[in-house]
Give the backbone structure.
Amino acid sequence: MPLALYDTLTRRKQPFVPAHEGRVGMYVCGPTVQAPAHVGHGRAAVVFDVLRRYLRATGHEVTFVQNVTDIDDKIIIRARREGVPAAVIATRFTRAWNRTMDALGVLPPDVQPLATGHLLEMQELISRLLECGKAYEVGGDVFFRVRSFPGYGALSRRQVDDMQQGEDVVDADRKEDPLDFALWKSAKPSEPSWPSPWGPGRPGWHIECSAMAAKHLGHGFDIHGGGLDLVFPHHENEIAQHQAAHGDTFARTWVHNGMVRMGDEKMSKSVGNVVALEDAVERWGCGPLRLWYLSAQHRTPLTFETERLRDATTVHERFTTFLRSARRATEGVEPDPSAARRHVEAFHAAMDDDLNAPAAIAALHELVGDGNERLAAGGGEAPGAVVGLADALVALGDDVLGLGMEASLAGAADLESHLSTLVEGLLEQRREARDAKDFATADAIRDQLAAAGVVVEDRPDGPRWYVAPSSV
Amino acid sequence: MPLALYDTLTRRKQPFVPAHEGRVGMYVCGPTVQAPAHVGHGRAAVVFDVLRRYLRATGHEVTFVQNVTDIDDKIIIRARREGVPAAVIATRFTRAWNRTMDALGVLPPDVQPLATGHLLEMQELISRLLECGKAYEVGGDVFFRVRSFPGYGALSRRQVDDMQQGEDVVDADRKEDPLDFALWKSAKPSEPSWPSPWGPGRPGWHIECSAMAAKHLGHGFDIHGGGLDLVFPHHENEIAQHQAAHGDTFARTWVHNGMVRMGDEKMSKSVGNVVALEDAVERWGCGPLRLWYLSAQHRTPLTFETERLRDATTVHERFTTFLRSARRATEGVEPDPSAARRHVEAFHAAMDDDLNAPAAIAALHELVGDGNERLAAGGGEAPGAVVGLADALVALGDDVLGLGMEASLAGAADLESHLSTLVEGLLEQRREARDAKDFATADAIRDQLAAAGVVVEDRPDGPRWYVAPSSV
């Protein structure tokens, strides 16, 4: 069964077949760098990171392009408020975005194009639209002539007569039609501007993605992604700009993620109900936060609730605890991958069904349950099947879902190396106390370790200990 | 005494007076993003970071601009070797550069302009040079006419007849004079290119800094920085391009750092003797590495030797250990800044003398020695003077030199919170053993703690403990 993806353009779940076998080009709309990323941004980041990782894990070489909108009204407004140039705001929040993406375990894009780095490409595209009558210039502004493009509305399934661009009303008197949108905005006093064939100005928002995606991935690239809130007008306009100019396909598959909600509202900066993504990663950790993002299928809404984040933390601890136990119990044991096979298949079947991440996580729960049973049954002896299950958990949970379990064990190992001399010494004292039938001392030592967050498991072959996951 | 800086242009140490009181514009040449940063790059990064921090600490608002050269022969060559677009190489190493700078404690630039983001600005500057006869076009290439600019050679103090641009010899037959250098290079097959008034092509290396510095800092900005290896031809050409086009001053002060050597040679990728900067930060830590960079005055050469890095580590431990002891001993004590005054003055006097960092570090040694004496004399009682000294150490060592001492204590505190229950319990057991005259047990507990890297200091008011710095 190949991967099937729900395509917003055709409104169907359909088999995903890349234009060039084994190679996938993906473009995902990136941030407007005007403020720190919030939890809403993190969802698109994780969803498309997982799609990219899954394509890689199933044998595709993926070129992942994500732009940075570094010139925009909102950036200019913030710059004016702070009394600094717009480039200072853009530099600050581009850097912050990248840091937060690293913390969230999101693989960096192969190409991260800046809008200000593609002005010539945008101007070339605008010139082409003017030449073929799909755009018009009015005193230094250039607008796209929406009704000249017959396919307009195909992505959002809207009738042109029912649409609103949501664009600045100051342009209303200069446009032929309220539906038309800006491709190039003439320079206003005290705004950044660049020279162009139509006089100094700056690009409209939509033109950058059409120009940058085609430049870095070619025409008819495989997957265009973004949040559902971008379907109209942004993605509708991206398609119109490209297809009106070139006549060929812009992107072959359109994948959109649902919004993050806070109570009954979409989490967004304009609503004012945002939680900073950096704070969420700091509080919950990358793995639990990603598990929460993946706890709903990517097209449905997802509500930010502490209880659900706690659930995700519990799941992450369950997975990590199995992995830790398995790694300790199976040192030097040869892996036997056969036991993992049915879990791997269940995981793939779920992911192939339009990236059904909740079902894929359920498959990991089955895998961990299986592994825990085998560990318990072995009583200190763990078979190769446990190694196979642990390896599969890392391949699926870490490599595909990006849960960072093995990395969190390594972090704990650093801490453990400082503790181990003390803990081993205390366990030795407890053994001596027990041998001397001094159970009060033995129990006191056990309490002392528990108070320090050290969990001791007594096993037939001696005590095992680890730092409780929640205190790491 | 105001800050005096050695200016490469005038070959004199002279008082630094910004063009606009209280505000400083700094431009420092950034990386060509074709490979990971090495220890040589780290020196310029730390030197100009410290200059920026010192200007800030002395009441200046600094705008710090550092470019990224994201299109260049070396990037194209690497891209071809890997079979990926040049933009993939540029994106990868821009991200890596920023991560490594974060790890090295280098404050992010206020503006980080990309060469590909300033093609229009460069084209405007080239057009101006063509118009006034300082440049000429030959079949899609544009060259700067060096002998048309009378000031050429002023920065590097070279005679034009003794110079070589080191430019690609393939251009030799197209140039009027071998000394001329490329402003715009016509497109070669399979190379990235952009449209221009002279046909498709890409910019020469030198033009980007002239265009970006003037755009983001204006004409006649305060400080231009970079490595001594950039004086000729890069900085000489930057000046020529700007001044030939505009007739006014490009930059008011030129500050250059000396090279990092490895044995008898300059550390550089072309020599093949580089140590990855990321590895050096990982091995030595940000604070010790920065102390090593600052152990020589910034214009002199500095040799990478393990022994010197060990020395720097020892210095960092001495400073951090005093800070830890002072913070523990003085909780709740009101600071008395008067004792720190002479050390602060000595530090400033050193820094004002062309950023004499070794002398500034010597002033911190004096400060720490003074603080340690007062701690020892107090016997458990630490006066407000110790708080004042500790605060000054943070203000000078962390805020100005970027040594990250307080942050490293906070990191150790995280670790200590896990250890503390165990350690406090063991210290209690040791007290009981001593009270019972069971000195064997008491000594055994002390050994156990020492083996775990926990240092115990017995004081009149009871034991104090900390994790030995080298094991953090």
User: Anything to note?
Assistant: Chain A has a mean pLDDT of 92. The domain at 17-266 of chain A is CATH 3.40.50.620 (Rossmann fold). The longest strand of chain A covers residues 221-227.
